[in-house]
Amino acid sequence: MKAGPEQNAKIMSCRMRPLPRRHRIAHLRALVRQQPADSIRRDLLTSLLRETTTARPPGKEAAGAKKPANDSSIKSCSFKE
């Protein structure tokens, strides 16, 4: 069974998480350039790139911001294939 574009974006996001932030950004930019201008996948990759570039790098939290006690979203990348 083939996964849809949303599932593929989730899978790619989980696979890219171990990469350093700057490499994730470079990889996403390259993937966006490969897609046709009007494709759904390009839109999903662009939104993922936007989230990645606007997110604060680790260790750069805003003054007074508390770190989450247990950030399970990073540790558990589970998906059905």
Write the layout of secondary structure elements.
Blueprint lengths: L4 H12 L4 H14 L5 H15 L17 H4 L6
Could you walk me through the main structural features you see in this protein, from its secondary elements to its overall organization?
- The chain is mostly helical.
- It has a domain of 54 residues.
- Helices cover 56% and strands 0% of the residues.
- The longest helix is centred in the middle third of the chain and has 15 residues.
- The chain is globular, with a radius of gyration of 14 Å.
- 4% of the residues are buried.
- The mean pLDDT is 76.
Q: First CA to last CA: what distance?
A: 8 Å
Indicate the mean pLDDT. Answer: 76
The geometry reads as globular
Based on CA atoms alone, the radius of gyration comes out at 14 Å
Largest sheet geometry: none
Assign the structural class, choosing from mainly alpha, mainly beta, alpha/beta, alpha+beta, or little secondary structure: mainly alpha
| String of helices and strands | HHHH
Low-confidence stretches: none
Q: Please, how many helices?
A: 4
Estimate what percentage of residues fall within beta strands. under 5%
Beta strand count: 0
The percentage helix is 55-70%
Task: Briefly summarize what is shown.
The chain is built from four helices and no strands. By secondary structure, the protein is an all-alpha fold.
